[in-house]
Amino acid sequence: MFKVARASQYLAITGGGIEDIKLSKKSWVLPWQKCTVFDVSPVNYTFKVQAMSAEKLPFVLPAVFTIGPRVDDTEALILYARLISPHDKQSNHVNELVEGVIEGETRVLAASMTMEEIFKGTKEFKKEVFDKVQLELDQFGLVIYNANVKQLVDVPGHEYFSYLGQKTQMEAANQARIDVAEAKMKGEIGAKERTGLTLQNAAKIDAESKIISMQRQGEGTKAEIKVKTEVKVFENQKEADVAKANSELAMKKAAWTKDAKVAEVEATKAVALREAELQTQVEKMNALTRTEKLKAEFLSKASVEYETKVQEANWELYNKQKQAEAVLYEKQKQAEAQKAEADATFYSKQREAEGLVALASAQGTYLKTLLDAVQNDYSCLRDFLMINNGTYQEIAKINALAVRDLQPKISVWNHGGEQGIGGAGGSGNAMKDIAGLYKMLPPVLDTVYHQTGMQPPAWIGTLSK
């Protein structure tokens, strides 16, 4: 059977194939299933809750709550369908359930507040009741749509609010009488004060008029004296300023004259000092140029001789290699001749050749292993093989033979101590530099003499032969 619920209704289906409860607006209902239709529209519950404040004063709280199931929460609807929907919403069971929750929470909250707090804070009291009642109704799947708490009412025999109203009326009447008496008193006092103030103000105005007249006369005399004094002070100040300006001008002229003379002397001394420094640098550069020229000539001569010896050694090495290749070629020819003489000898030589091939293969594997060990660095492999085969030793011997006949001449010069040259400070350092320049000349001139046979000029000095 296919069932459809109205807009304000839901279908609660239980039975075979459904674990708990299935809620739907329309569904097929099988024979082994049971369907219940329940209404979710809210209902108004009107109560008169009797409670007692913290001072143990009873009162009646009229309230109207609009309560219904929470339709936007499936779990709440299932709770409502399980606990409330089997009963009529207007039945005594549901009414007593809701009323019990509201009365319980209202009484607990009222017992913690004074009557004055409840009466003055009706809005806060309503919110507290609303929140606590809603917390309890959540377990039934219900929600409060609206809560209207009316004014507090006295319990018969306890006319607290009546007495409170009478007290307010009496306080208002008494306050009105007091206000009338105070107004009458203020009127009489005000009239007397006005008369006295009029007389005081008249006397005060006369006295102030006389004082102002005297002040005007004194201020005129004072202003005249002040103007004369300021004029005299201004004239004295101007005379002092003129004298001060003349003094400062004379001092500045003297300072300018002094600075000009000092600058002229310093410029003359600076030019002379700069000329001496430039002359010293020129002499140093000339000496360095001669020295470098001699070094270049000596080194070029030695380089030429070295290259000649190296070429001769290379030529000798080349001849020895060719001789060795000729001997090897002759040996190969002899081996071929001997191989042709007999089959036995041929077989022996063939085996010998295979041995050489195996040796070459082993050497190739050895070289490949070495190359892998040095990470394919051919220069490193070449250096290792040359060291292992004694190539570097042979080259060293050849180079030694090449330079053996050069017989360079070495001169050793001793300048002695330097403690007696110059004094302390900057002048001592300048003298050391000049002394070092002159100490360098004898070995340079001696080398030039031995290499070229040229004597230094007579104004420099003579060399011992």
TrEMBL record:
Residues 9-184 form the Band domain. The keyword Membrane applies. Keywords: Cell membrane, Coiled coil, Lipoprotein, Membrane, Palmitate. It is found in: Cell membrane; Membrane, Caveola. Pfam families: Band_7. InterPro entries: Band_7 (IPR001107), Flotillin_fam (IPR027705). It comes from the Eukaryota. Its main location: membrane. It is a lipid-anchor. GO terms for cellular component: caveola. Belongs to the band 7/mec-2 family. Flotillin subfamily. May act as a scaffolding protein within caveolar membranes, functionally participating in formation of caveolae or caveolae-like vesicles. This is Flotillin-like.
